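Protocol step 4 of 6: structure prediction from sequence.
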Amino acid sequence: MLERLAHSRRRPVADEAIHIVALWNLMIILIPFLLLSAVFSQTSILNLYLPPPAPPGAGKTTPAASAPKPVVSIVRDGYLVSDGPTVVAAIPMDADGRYQTRKLTDLLLQVKQSIPDRLDIVILSEATIPYETIVQTMDASREAVVDREGRREAVPLFPNISLGQIGRSAPIDVKDRS
């Protein structure tokens, strides 16, 4: 009899539904927050172009291809700007030891005026040059900001950038070329 009483006193456990209201509230808040924060973490990409291979038997050159190709060399003492074998100008580092990218942009603006059809430029650097300096040089050679009629306007310079490394054959000193 005691067993019957023990069984009769137990209440049957009802199937309870899982309460997920708190989980839904969390998702409603969390998902928009994650979507909004993902918009602010964008990465900029700069396209670099390799010269196309010359087709066989292509001996003729176009006027743009025969124009001198500007070359900016980043060395430990500053910038060297050349049009192939001839050094056009040298821009030494400032007194604080920083590269003068604004002077480089101004010089490349003058070079662009002499060869307006040219879109490509070669940027060479020594192996010890920091990555940040190379990126600043690339930005300085892509476009210049000029004042025209009271407005600041971006003028494209050389958007097609090719990168290279200066060999170890001969040390280059900017101070001797000025």
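Step 5 (inspection) to follow. The CA atoms of residues 46 and 135 lie 9 Å apart.
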